[in-house]
Amino acid sequence: MTNKYNQYYFLGIGGIGMSALARYFNTKGFSVAGYDLTQTKLTDKLQAEGITIVFDESIESIPADFLEPNKTLIIITPAVPNEHEQLVFFRKNNFHIMKRSEVLGAITRQSKAICIAGTHGKTTTSTMIAHLMHQSHVECSAFLGGISSNYKTNLITSTQSNYVVVEADEYDRSFHRLTPFMAVITSMEPDHLDIYGSEEAFVESFEHFTSLITSGGSLIVNSKINLQPRLQKGVKHYTYGLDENANFHAKNIRSDNGKILFDFVAPTDTIHDIKLGVPVMINVENAVAAMALAWLNGVTNEELRTGMATFQGIYRRFSLVYQDENVVYMDDYAHHPGELKASISSIRQLFKGRKITGIFQPHLYTRTRDFASEFAEALSDLDELILLDIYPAREIPIEGVTSEIILKDVTIQNKSLINKENLLTLLDKKEIDVLVTFGAGDIDKMVPEIKKFLKKKHKELMEKNESTA
C-alpha cells in the first residue's frame, strides 16, 4: 500500500517511533512533512535533515505540496485525537490514512523482521540487537524506540542486509500488525489496561503475538515469564535469562571497579568474559536476549564480544548527565513500576552506600490509577522522593486520580509532591548525593536546567572552599 505514494505526511512526527519512520522515507528520497504539537530537539534534527514540520494544526499550515490525496499518504499515531483539525480534513477529503503500526507491518512483511516485545526492556534490548548485528558482517536496519548513543539516531539503515529490528509495541495491540521472523519477549507485566480491560486479555494479546512468527523463525522468551506460546509449525522456542536452566543465560557475573563481566552460555557454545559497554546490572539480562538473537542469526563470537563492549546505550536509559566529586545526576525513562524497581536497584548497586534522591513524573492517568500501589512500592526503595504531577499525554484527567494516590502509600519519610515550576527551588534546599529523574512525559525538558543548576551549585561550593582555605 505504501509503494504507490511518493509523499508522506505524519501527524505526531515528533514522537520517537514516528520520527524513525519519517527518517526512513526521507532517506529513501521521498517527500516527507508532518505536524507536531511542540518543537523539541528531535523535531529540530528532523528539520535539519530536510523534513518540513509545522506546529499549528490549522489546515492552512499544511504544506501545499501535500494536499493531493492521490500523492500523499497520511501516517498517524494513536496520540493524535480524532478531532484534530488536520486529521478531520484528511478524512473528509479521502486521503488514505494508516497507523504507524500498519506501515511498520508492511515493512516487516518485506524483510526478515526481528521484533522485540515487552512492557519494559524492549528499547534497550532492541538497540543492543541492532548494534550487535549492524556492526557485524550480518548487518541490519532498525527502527528504535530511543536515540542510540552509538549512532545518534533512532533509525539505522543498511543496503546490504534484509534484516530489520523493530520494537513490537503492545499499546493498542499494535504488535499484532507485525510479521516477525524472530521475536523476543522481555517482560509481560500488565499495562495499558485502559485498552485491554483485564490482565487476561493483556496476556492473550502477547500469546497471539507469538502466533505471528513465520515458519523457520524463533521465539525467545524471558525465563521468568509464564506464557503459553501459539507457535506455527517450524518455529523454535527458546528461553533466556539469568537462570542456568534457560537455553541462553549468563553465568559467572562479576562487577569490579565500574565494570561488569559475564560468560554468555548458548545451547552449543560459551563465550567467556563478555564486557558490558553500559555497566549496570539490569543490562546483563537484556544483553543475553540481544546476544541470543544475534547468535541465532550468525553473528560470530568475536563480533558479539566486540559489539557488547562497544555498546554505548540509549538517550534517557541510565544516562549519566552530570558528575563531580560530590554529586551524580542520572536520567532514566522508567515509567512502569517494574522498570522503576529494576532501575533503582541497579543504581543502588552502582552507587553503594550513597543517598539516592529520585524525581518521578507519573505518565498517564490510567496507568497511575491502575498501578498506584505498585508505583508506591517501587519508589519506596529510594532514600528520598520528589513526586511531580501526572503527565497526561493523550488522556484527559480522571476524577480523583492525582500523584497524591501514589505518594500516600510511599513508605519512606523523605517524600514531597510539587509541580515542575517549583522543582529547582526545592532542590536548592536539598543535600543532593545521587539524583535521578524518572519518567516518560516531559521531565526530560527539565534535564538541562537541573544540570545547569548542579554545575552552578558545584562552582559556588568550590569558590566558597577556596575563600575559606
Which CATH top level class of the largest domain fits? Alpha Beta
Uncertain stretches of 5 or more adjacent residues = none
Counted up, domains total: 3
Structural class: alpha/beta
Report strand %.
15-25%
CATH architecture of the largest domain: 3-Layer(aba) Sandwich
Name some characteristics of this structure.
3 domains, alpha/beta, Rossmann fold, Protein-Tyrosine Phosphatase, Chain A, 21 strands, 469 residues, six-stranded mixed β-sheet, 15 helices
Q: In a nutshell, what does this entry contain?
A:
This protein is α/β, with parallel strands linked by helices and 469 residues long. Helices cover 32% and strands 24% of the residues.
Descriptive overview:
32% of the residues lie in helices and 24% in strands. The protein contains 15 helices and 21 strands. It is an alpha/beta fold. It folds into 3 domains: 2-99, Rossmann fold (3-Layer(aba) Sandwich); 111-310, UDP-N-acetylmuramoyl-L-alanine:D-glutamate ligase, CATH 3.40.1190; 319-465, Mur ligase, C-terminal domain (Protein-Tyrosine Phosphatase, Chain A, Alpha-Beta Complex). The strands form 3 sheets. It has a 10-stranded mixed sheet with strand order 8-7-9-6-10-11-12-13-14-15, with helices on both faces. Strands 16-17-21-18-19-20 form a 6-stranded mixed sheet, sandwiched between helices. A 5-stranded parallel sheet has the order 3-2-1-4-5, sandwiched between helices. The protein has helices at residues 16-27, 41-48, 85-92, 100-109, 122-134, 193-196, 199-210, 282-296, 301-310, 337-350, 365-370, 372-379, 404-407, 423-427, 447-468; strands spanning 7-11, 31-35, 52-54, 72-76, 96-99, 112-117, 141-148, 153-156, 163-168, 182-185, 218-222, 236-241, 248-256, 259-266, 269-275, 319-323, 328-332, 356-360, 384-387, 415-417, 434-438.
